[in-house]
Amino acid sequence: MGITPTALEKTDKHTLVNLQEEFNKTKIQEVLDDLNQELIGLKPVKNRIREIAALLLVDRLRQKVGLSSSNPGLHMSFTGPPGTGKTTVATKMADILYKLNYIKKGHLVTVTRDDLVGQYIGHTAPKTKEVLKKAMGGVLFIDEAYYLYKPDNERDYGSEAIEILLQVMENQREDLVIIFAGYKEKMDKFYASNPGLASRVANHVDFPEYRPEELLKIAEMMLQEQQYQLTKEAELVFLDYIKKRMLQPHFANARSVRNAIDRARMRHANRIFNLSSKIVTKSNLTTIQAEDILKSRLFNT
Ligand SMILES: Nc1ncnc2c1ncn2[C@@H]1O[C@H](COP(=O)(O)OP(=O)(O)OP(=O)(O)O)[C@@H](O)[C@H]1O
C-alpha cells in the first residue's frame, strides 16, 4: 500500500528501539518496582497500574512519531474499602504521570468534601478553587468523593463544587489529574447520578479487601521497617486479632493493622520497662510477644 516492505520494516524497527529507549528514559520501571516491593498482595491493582502506564507511554510515543493520539483520559477512579492502599498507589500514579510528562509537578493533594464545600452561600467556589490551585500540576485525590453529591438536598453546595471540578477536568486536562476514591458501591451510585463526571473518568481501578493472612504479612512488613519482629506465637495471636478486628466497626484494613501495631509497641515498651532486670538485650527491644497483643481489649470481650 505505497510502503515497500523494506520501508515498513525500517519504520517498525525504528519505533521498537524508541519504545525501549523511551521506557528506560522515563524510569517508570523504578516506580512499578517500588509499588511491587512496598505493597503486599494487590496483584490486580499492580497489573492495572502497569496497563495504564503502558497505555500512557505508548500514546506519548505515538504522538512523537506523528501517529494519531487517542488523547487518553487521565482522570481515574480508585474504588475499595478504607486502608486498602488507594492513597499509596495514587502517589505512585502521580509519579508515573509526572515521569511521562503528563503533569508538570507530580505531587498529590488529598482532600475530602469538607476541603471543597463551604457551609454558607458563596463559600464553596473559593474553597474549591483554592484546592484546585494547590493541586495544579499534580494529582487531586478526592477521598469518599460521593459525599460531594447529596441527592436528598437540592440546595446542597456539593453540586457547585462538582460543577467547578467538571470544568477543570474538561478544560485543564494538561495541568491536573483527578482521582475519585471511595467504596465501590457508593462510587457507582455517584457516577450514575453524575453522568457528565463519569464520562470524564477513563481509568477504573478496584482495590480488593485484604485476606487476614495478607494483613499479617503487611503487619510483619511494617514491623520490620521499624526494626521489630513477632515471635511465632505472637504471629498466631496477631492473626487471631486481625480476624476479630475485621468484624468490629470502623475496620480499615492496613490502616487498622498499623494502629494495632502502634498499640502493641506501646504495650511491649511497658512490659520491657516493668521487667525486674533493668538490663535489656537487643532482642528484648525488638521482639513483640504474644502477651503484647493479647492485652488488647479485643481479647477481653
Ligand atoms: N498492600 C499493602 N502493603 C503494605 N502496606 C500497605 C498496603 N496497603 C496499605 N498499606 C499501608 O496502610 C496504610 C493505609 O493505606 P492507604 O492510606 O494507602 O489506604 P487508602 O485505601 O487510601 O485508605 P483511605 O481511603 O481510608 O484513606 C498506609 O500506611 C499504607 O502504607
Question: Could you walk me through the main structural features you see in this protein, from its secondary elements to its overall organization?
Answer:
With about 300 residues, the chain is of the alpha/beta class. It is built from 14 helices and seven strands. The strands form two sheets. It has a five-stranded parallel sheet with strand order 2-3-4-1-5, sandwiched between helices. A two-stranded parallel ribbon has the order 6-7. The chain starts with a helix and ends in a 7-residue tail after the last helix. Adenosine-5'-triphosphate (ATP) binds near residues 82 and 143.
Offer a quick outline of the entry.
The protein is an alpha/beta fold and 301 residues long.
> Low-confidence runs (pLDDT<50, min 5 residues)?
1-9
Number of strands: 7
> What is the strand content?
5-15%
CA gyration radius, whole angstroms: 24 Å
Q: Enumerate how many helices there are, as a single number.
A: 14
Which molecules are bound in this entry? adenosine-5'-triphosphate
Features:
single chain, 301 residues, alpha/beta, Rossmann fold, Helicase, Ruva Protein, domain 3, 2 domains, five-stranded parallel beta sheet, two-stranded parallel sheet, 7 strands, 57% helix, disordered N terminus, binds adenosine-5'-triphosphate
Which secondary structure elements does this structure contain, and how are they paired or packed?
Layout: H1 5-26, H2 28-38, H3 43-64, E1 76-79, H4 86-99, E2 108-111, H5 113-116, H6 124-135, E3 139-143, H7 158-171, E4 177-182, H8 184-193, H9 195-198, E5 203-206, H10 212-225, E6 229-230, H11 232-246, H12 253-273, H13 282-286, E7 287-288, H14 290-294
Parallel strand pairs: 1-4, 1-5, 2-3, 3-4, 6-7
Helix pairs in contact: 2-3, 2-4, 6-7, 10-11, 10-12
Bound molecules: adenosine-5'-triphosphate (ATP).
Adenosine-5'-triphosphate (ATP) binds next to helix 4, helix 10 and helix 12.
